[in-house]
Design goal:
Strand content: 15-25%
Number of strands: 6
Number of domains: 1
Distance between the termini: 31 Å
Number of helices: 4
Order of helices and strands: EHEHHEHEEE
Largest sheet: 4 strands, parallel
Radius of gyration: 15 Å
Length: 146
Amino acid sequence: MKPIIVTSDLHLSGDTSAATVRDLALLMRANPGHEFMLAGDVFNLSWEAPGRSAVDAVVALLSAHPELARALREQLAAGAPLTLMAGNHDAGVISPEMRDALLHTLALSSDAPLEIAPWFVRRGGVHIEHGHFYDPDNAPAHPLAE
């Protein structure tokens, strides 16, 4: 198993602080070969106009932040896994069209190691979860609870 770097709750949008985008790109470039787990709420799709698709919003965000698009492309082109998990503010990333749209936007083939997952994944004995199900202000009943 490759080393994993987990980040979440960046809440990126078209008008996101350039420093946040720059720091994520720098983190990715400083850790080649690691799997990057973007564990939910990476994008703040809840700020998008009603009816705008998650795919359109994410593609527009990458166009607005080419430095981030380059870092994602470099990560995947090098064969290093990238996992994008849905959170409560970017649940639309789980849409069936998202993976193909991202790969097309990043000019990568379908065999790039990009995984799009619901709010949790497991790597061996490690469970990584977005966590909004544990927030008493936002949590619906956890689907794994008895």
